[in-house]
Specification:
The protein has 242 residues and is mostly helical. 81% of the residues lie in helices and 0% in strands. 33% of the residues are buried.
């Protein structure tokens, strides 16, 4: 499993995908941070910045995951995977961890640069403390959402050998998950509203941006990622015995 993790992580930097992902995430996060803090003046809102990070991740995560399984299937190298001594759960988890390492590492580095710059301009001590707590909770929430997003991308990638279809499919599903809470107010059927509210990634994220650590949401994100990874393993188990 460790060997696969290292190989997958290394592969991101032997192709343009890793550099493209890092460049887009850095540039988009920097622009969003400037827009919602410094350029906003008195209307600066750090919570809006972290909410914008979800939109950014929605677009860049498919770039990160689109080749994870699709490339193996297209190149016919997945037979080596299916017949290798490495367990399928270990293989899927290694793929997940390599993608998550790149996403999480890039996000953390970006905010290790952005947030200290913002705090250096704040002179009100209570405001500094409030923003620090909010920023910490929001960072945890973004990383949790990132894990859920990657698990969706890996699942879609395991279903097709076309990387473009994998990326588009992932983008559509992530957009639907983020948009579920927006549709809530426009639906009159109460049971459907309850389902959308339960599935909504954004409604669970918002508590963190207000400085609250919601353990129920933490369990939700972890369970969501685990279910997607489990289904990915089942897809490959079915293919192994087909």
């Amino acid at each position: 499993m460790l060997a696969i993790y290292k190989r997958e992580l290394y592969s991101y930097f032997t192709s343009p995908i890793g550099y493209l992902f890092v460049a887009i995430l850095w540039a988009a996060s920097g622009l969003a941070f400037s827009f919602f803090t410094f350029l906003a003046g008195q209307d600066a809102n750090i919570s809006s910045y972290f909410t914008s990070e979800l939109i950014i991740l929605m677009f860049v995560t498919p770039i990160l995951t689109m080749k994870s399984f699709s490339e193996d299937r297209k190149l016919k190298t997945e037979q080596l995977i299916l017949t290798s001594p490495v367990s399928l759960p270990g293989f899927v988890v290694a793929k997940f961890l390599s993608s998550y390492t790149l996403l999480g590492g890039t996000f953390i580095i970006v905010n290790c640069i952005n947030l200290p710059i913002m705090f250096s301009y704040l002179s009100d001590q209570p405001l500094v403390v409030y923003n620090a707590v909010t920023a910490l909770g929001s960072c945890v929430a973004v990383l949790l959402v990132g894990a859920a997003f990657i698990s969706v991308g890996l699942l879609i990638s395991s279903l097709t050998e076309n990387q473009i279809i994998s990326a588009l499919g992932t983008l559509i599903i992530l957009a639907a998950l983020l948009g579920a809470s927006m549709l809530n107010s426009k639906i009159g059927f109460a049971p459907l509203r309850a389902v959308l509210r339960w599935l909504s990634i954004y409604s669970r994220f918002s508590a963190f941006t207000q400085g609250y650590f919601d353990f129920a949401s933490l369990i939700y994100y972890a369970s969501f990622a685990a279910v997607c990874l489990f289904v990915t393993v089942r897809v490959y188990e079915k293919r192994r015995w087909a």
